[in-house]
Structures are given as structure tokens and as C-alpha cells.
Amino acid sequence: MPNNRNAFSPLVAWRRRVLSRAVHHGWRRVREWGAVTAEHTGGLRFGRIGAGTRLAFPQGTVFGEPWIELGAHCVIGEQVTLTAGLMPDLNLGPEPILTLGDGVVLGRGSHVVADTSVTIGSDTYCGPYVYITSTNHSYDDPHEPIGRQWPRMEPVAIGPGCWIGTGSVILPGATLGRNVVVAAGAVVRGHVPDHAVVAGAPARVVRSWDPEKGWQPPLRTPAPVPIPADLTPDQLLALAEPAEPPGPPAD
User: Fold this and answer.
1) Strands 36-37 and 54-55
2) DSSP string spanning 25-89?
3) What strand order describes the sheet that includes 111-114?
4) Could you give the count of Cα atoms lying within 13 Å of 243 in the half-sphere of its Cβ?
5) DSSP string spanning 84-133?
6) How does strand 62-63 pair with strand 48-49?
7) Which residues pair with 188 in a beta bridge?
8) 17-31 pLDDT, tens per residue?
9) For residues 151 and 23, what is the distance between their CA atoms, to the nearest angstrom?
10) Are 91 and 70 in contact (CB under 8 A)?
């Protein structure tokens, strides 16, 4: 007799394919409908959310929205935490606490914790799992549990055009200038000047720009070719696609 399991395996495989497609299609719809934009805020009452800004679904922890201002065309990845204040439902005064400029990108799983002022300049890109905070635990009293000691708070300011690598930590009181590169996993405190590359824990400047000498130490890779200004998005995508392999030779 034929094995019933084998006899029905094509039907089972077909049902699994149909179910898989339905699940993926449904999840894409959920992600689309759950995204937060200026037009569809999902009940989040931000102080400002600019045109074209999108918080991907599912969002991370978000509270203190009235004191959070998001510029235009920001991209906030999945599971990103944005908080203003030590806890929800506090009155933080008339001024914004957390401010993102236009075109800021926060990668998946990043945290921006603003118990006092945190500003991120326009066109700053953050990789996944970046942690930016204006608060740190105190450990002054050796007899009291650290978690019960009142934390210290210092403003954080990140200039425009920066690139902050995956897993980096920006500590309270840090100020980053314009077009700063933070290497993956770096722990940044203090002041970082314009056009500097920092790496390590604690981070230190490993490369900087000199107006007369250029990058010091010199870059080890050739400068990238700039994208032509008149190149359309469709043309750019076509260039990024791999070329088709050549066909068989003609007879």
C-alpha cells in the first residue's frame, strides 16, 4: 500500500507554500500600517514630526513625545527607543528635550535616551544598535546600590553630517562636530572636533582633516567616484544590479 504521508506530501508542501506567502504578505501589511508618519501618528503626540519622516514598525519604547521633535525625511528603524524625561507623564517644561534634524537615520535597535537636552544634527546617520544618552548612573556612595543613586545628566550635541557606526555609545556631555565618523563599537565622551574619525573605548581621534594636507594620516583607499548630479534613481538602481551573464555563442 502507498504511504499516506508520501501520497499527500505534494498537497502538504503546497499548503505550506500558500501559508508562508500569506504570513509574509500579512506581515508586510502590518509593518506598513504600523509605521508612524506625520499623517498617521499611531497615537504618538510628538512635539513635531516633519514631512516624509517614518518610524518603522514595530517601534521600541517611546515616551515624552511632546518634548521630542523630529525633522523632515528622517528614517527611524525598527525597535528604536526614543525617550524624553526619566519616565512617562512628566512635565518637562516649554522647550524640546530631544531634537532630530532633517534627514537623520537611526538604525534598528538604537536607543536615544534624553533626560536632558539631546540634539542630533541634520543628515547624521546611525548604524544599528547605537546608544545615545544624556544620563549616566552615579556610584559616589559605596554603600548604596548604584541603581538607587541619583543619576548625572549632561546635554549631548551631535553635529550635522556625522556617521555613527554600529554598536557605538555616545555618553552624557559628548559634543560631536560636523561630519564626524564614529567607528563601530566606540565609546565617545567629551568634545570631538569637526571632520574627525574616532575609534576605541574610550574613543580617541585616529584621523582628522587638515585644510592644507588633507586627511592625516592619509586614507588607505582611493576616494570614491562622486555620483553624477543628473543621475536618476532608476538609473542608479540599474547600475547597482549585477550584469546578466553572457549567453551561449551563436552557431
Assistant:
1) antiparallel
2) HHHHHHHHHH-EESS--TT---SEE-TT-EEPSSP--EE-GGGEEE-TT-EE-TT-EEEESSSTT
3) 62-63, 81-84, 111-114, 131-133, 169-170, 187-188
4) 3
5) ESSSTT----SS-SEEE-TT-EE-TT-EEEESS-EEE-TT-EE-TT-EEE
6) unpaired
7) 170
8) 888 888 888 888 887
9) 45
10) no
Which residues 6+ apart lie within 8 Å of 34 measured at CB? 42, 57, 58, 59
Residue type, 222: P
Strand-strand pairing, 62-63 and 131-133: unpaired
pLDDT digits (tens, 9 = 90+) for 127-184: 999 999 999 999 999 999 998 999 999 999 999 999 999 999 999 999 999 999 999 9
pTM of the model: 0.82
> Which residues are within 8 A (CB) of 17 and not within 5 positions of it... i.e. 6 or more apart?
none
Helix%, strand%, coil% for the chain, nearest 5: 20, 25, 55
**What gap in Å lies between CA 89 and CA 135, rounded to an integer?**
18
Spatial CA neighbour of 95 closest among 71, 116, 124, 73: 116
* CA distance between the termini of the chain: 52
Q: Residues 58-63: contacts with CB within 8 Å, 24+ apart? A: 58/34, 59/34, 60/109, 60/111, 63/87, 63/88, 63/89
Cell of 24: 509574509
130, exposed or middle or buried, with CB in 10 Å at 0-12, 13-18, 19+? Answer: buried
